[in-house]
Specification:
about 210 residues, alpha/beta, Aconitase, domain 4, 9 helices, about 15% strand, globular
Length: about 210
């Protein structure tokens, strides 16, 4: 299976419920005008102490979870503000999927539209998965997007995706790519629209030209 159909790797446990986007990406890392460097801000106050020293007991700082590709989170993961930077920071850090029993609604849309896979499982299955990945010896997880199934040391569970999101992942598309894939239909709609309403075409341009005269 390709990277578009399967995500496999070390999964790190992050059981904190209601982990909000302010914690995932603190406000001081939102000052840039592009997406670069957001991995440095990811979960900063959990990863570092008040003197900016790494907290070696935090899971993503532990050597046995280096290179983690999956997070197993607490309920209502990603609640709070709508900052898309939280998604970008997770991706830049190397996280390709988050598993939890529920997600903040806006975070869910931001993540899926940027191809950060979010997998929702019942709470009891998340807890079983959390137990697996809390032991570095059984921390590897496989997520099969095509079959919509997650497998770990003791969990083998189906999950649901909308048809649109499943298609986007399998085709390697973000929201912009999914829109551009419909370029032919967009062009056809535009032509039909102008043919039916020619008086609306370039109204602003025509008005500006008339005023300039």
């Amino acid at each position: 299976m390709s990277d578009s159909t399967r995500i496999e790797g070390i999964a790190a446990p992050l059981p904190t419920p209601n982990l909000d986007t302010d914690q995932i990406m603190p406000k001081q890392f939102l000052r840039g005008i592009d997406k670069r460097g957001l991995d440095k801000g990811l979960l900063y106050d959990l990863r570092f102490d008040g003197e900016h020293r790494p907290r070696m007991d935090f899971v993503l700082n532990r050597p046995d979870y280096a290179g983690a590709a999956i997070l197993v989170g607490g309920s209502n993961f990603g609640c709070g503000s709508s900052r898309e930077h939280a998604v970008w920071g997770l991706q830049q850090f190397g996280i390709r999927a988050v598993v939890a029993s529920s997600f903040g609604e806006i975070f869910y849309s931001n993540a899926m539209n940027n191809r950060l896979l979010l997998v929702m499982l019942p709470e009891e299955q998340v807890q079983a998965l959390m137990a697996d990945v809390s032991d570095s010896a059984t921390s590897r997880v496989e997520i099969d997007v095509e079959q919509m199934r997650l497998r770990s040391h003791s969990v083998d569970a189906p999950f649901a995706l909308s048809a649109r999101h499943r298609h986007m992942f399998l085709e390697g598309l973000d929201m912009i790519g999914a829109t551009l894939a419909m370029q032919g239909q967009i062009d056809a709609f535009q032509e039909a629209h102008w043919a039916a309403r020619p008086w609306l075409k370039e109204v602003a341009y025509a008005t500006r030209a008339r005023l300039d005269r």
